[in-house]
Amino acid sequence: MTTQGGYPGTPPPPLIAGREFAGVEEGTKRRVMGYIQWGAFAERVAANPNMLWPVPDNWTDEQAAAFPVNYFTAYLGYWQAGMTQPAAAGKDHRVLIHAVAGGVGTAAVQIGRILGVEMYGTSSSDEKLARVKELGLQHGINYKRNDYEEEVKNLTHGEGVDAVFEMLGGEHTARSLRCLRDFGRVIQYGTATGKAPQLDVRALYAKSASVQGLWLTYLSQKREIMEPAWRQLSEWIAQRTLTPVIGKVFPLEQAVEAYKLLQDGKNYGKVVLKISG
Question: pTM value?
Fold first, then answer.
């Protein structure tokens, strides 16, 4: 999306892309991982100290580079959906995760397992779904073979889910709304199809539902949100219940091939670029 000018405020090309990174901090020599608006695909990066976090001792640099965007986005999705707190007595939390085998998807499954959320996930491949089920996904839906609206309806006995993590855009925003329970929320954090999200206002009325945006670039500027999120994530990291999923590592010289893998939808987990120093 950055290279195609799909994010607000992105400079025109040529520009250095990349929103997250891992490396060694000059001066302290400590291993850090961090988040910036763009410019991470470089040998040296200038970052806001508030957007740097220590790399866990047992993690590789590749795992650290795969952490910030995926796990903060996934955690804040659950937070916005009201799922970081236990469900009311006699109820459960249910979430539908689109592109469940991708970077944010695999992070959301790991976090959802910790929170005790019942998870439904879509992917184009039975092989990918099998791998994500090993992370804790309970209900995998191959959208190329089955209509995910119908599958969610059948699996939930017509009730639907409390939240949908939606990053496709286009018709999928309206379809995701129809997958919700009463008072449910679509958490919109991307438009991977390149098409503007479509809204079915009647579905909003019918279920008292809502569509809520999640843009990490905006939220990352708010310490009152990011610091509690990091405290919780770092606690889970210390317990070794979160481990970034790496699909493939490319040298920077093969960035074009890495982008193509993403565009073709063949990636599993995170794609990482490694810069030789």
Answer: 0.94
